[in-house]
Amino acid sequence: MHVKFCLFSTRARCFSIALLSLVLGGCGVSAIVKENEVIKVKDVSVTSPLRFSQFGTSRERYWTMDGLMLNDFRIFADVKPGENLFLNTKSRSERKGEGSLYKKGMDALEVQELFVDTLKSAGLAEVSSSGLKPAPFGQRSGFRFNLQFQTPGTGGGLIYRAMVLAEVESDTLSYLYFDAPAEFFFERDKTAIEKLFGSVTAPSVR
Amino acid sequence: MLALTACATRNLPDAGAQHREQVVEQDEAGLWAQMDRIEALMKEAPERVRDPALQTYVDELKCKLAPDICADIRIYILRQSQFNAFMTPNGAMGLFTGLLLRCEDEAQLASVIGHEIAHYQKRHVLENWRRAKNTAGWVTVIGMLAGGSGIGALATIGAYVNFASFSRTQEKEADEVGFASLQQANYASDAPSLVWANVLEEEKLDPRPFLSGLFASHPSSPERQRYLAEMAKQPSAAASKARGAIDFANAIAAHRSQWLDDELARRAYRQTELLLNRLGKIPYGQGQISYAQGELYRKRDLPGDLNRAAAAYQRAANDKNASSVVFRDLGLTLKKQGDQKGANAAFSEYLTRSPQADDAAMIRSYINAR
Fold first, then answer.
1. Does any CB of chain A come closer than 8 Å to the CB of residue B277?
2. pLDDT tens for residues B291-345?
3. Distance (Å, rounded) from C-alpha B266 to C-alpha B292?
4. How far apart are CA B15 and CA B1, in angstroms?
5. Nearest to B264 by CA among B288, B290, B299
6. Could you tell me which chain B residue has the CA closest to the CA of A113?
7. pTM score > 0.80 for this model?
8. Residues within 8 A of B (CB atoms), A 104-123 only
9. Chain A residues touching residue B44 (CB < 8 angstroms)
10. Nearest alpha-carbon partner for B154 in B76, B71, B255, B59
């Protein structure tokens, strides 16, 4: 997913995070997540059911098995009011308080809506959401929903499906995100990602 | 040098009917071949609006404006929230849905289509191509087309649009030719100046995200609006009166909610507020506009916005065609205002109207949270 976004809006950031991960590899984020390894991002922990490649920073992690265009799992913790979902550098309009920014007081419906608007603004086509429902986020009350979109590639683009598990506590947003091409990869990886979603631990009171 | 080039290229004869068969100059044939590839991208683009009724509507409109070359012009409607339209030299025209959303009637849409057809007739792209075909910009565009870059139709079109910008002289000529076609089809002669007056108002708030691509290089809106308004005052123009407001409203009715959603997804609150206030004065689709205003204020959430949102949703709810989501979003707004009783009533109405809604479990959790 990040590469998909890189094509449209955040290319520089994508590579800078990857580079930062390489530079900091010895003292922070490991490049490999092992099977059954517990990874903690702020106060959100997950247990990986598989081996993944990893890059990221203290509040965000990107995992993939076959490359980000084919399977893209993300953990974002403590997105604060006024920040955008993927912690990108703010655009000119975002600096003026417009654009797809996370806001204090947003609830599940509005977070789902924010994802849709963010993906649309990134240049993806036919973005839709479905299946919003309450779901535990570790020990916290969370929610989950699905997304679908189409990349604008030649020949009509590629259809992607995505799953999001999220929670809002103390006005910050934390979430797990996974996307993959609807054809083959999403179905193949869905069970592993469900396991990942089910492995979240997050203390109920911070 | 530019002036000399302009003089040298002003002698191109207009593109008449079946111009493709008459293209004998090698560079124009080559240009058309490349533009055929842009057209192929538009045809396949996931953003293309594939609605036979709407397509028929714009095709008939194009034929009213340019009956002689009607068959040579092909229009592709692309789902993009920006105000934009563009013409390629092979007769393919792109119309963004953000432009359709902003037109108030058929006459305004006709003024844009007529203007774009004029670029085709006057072979403006060929003029520019001959002047600039060796520059980096054109090489980039052609390279993208030749290499099948895989970045998609709109990115390629965006590159084309950025590098195929017309000169002020060409734009003014297209305005004049387009204006004549508007009169010939008996459309209201003030339509072009109204379009640009509206653009100007939005442009004042935030020019760059709105006027992307081609229209960003058009003559500045104040200048353009001024000379278009002067054209409309000419005695010969006064007789043109048709606006076609109802036909236009009917043609876009099935898509308007989706286009409003796309506009709201930009979260360009000031421009969208201005747009919705303007569209709210048109006596068609009032419920859609009220709902969109509710969405705008709920998303923006500045002091006082939740009150504005609730009032707008209430107006939308009173519309006989109100969608069930009006009640869901009204409930959400009331919940945020602390009116749990009102929120529950609205959520219950939503679930009554859409018992199978796929977010029903979430909404039930809101009601049960009382």
1. no
2. 999 999 999 999 999 999 999 999 999 999 899 999 999 999 999 999 999 999 9
3. 13
4. 26
5. B299
6. B265
7. yes
8. 105, 107-110, 113, 116-117, 120-121, 123
9. 154-156
10. B76
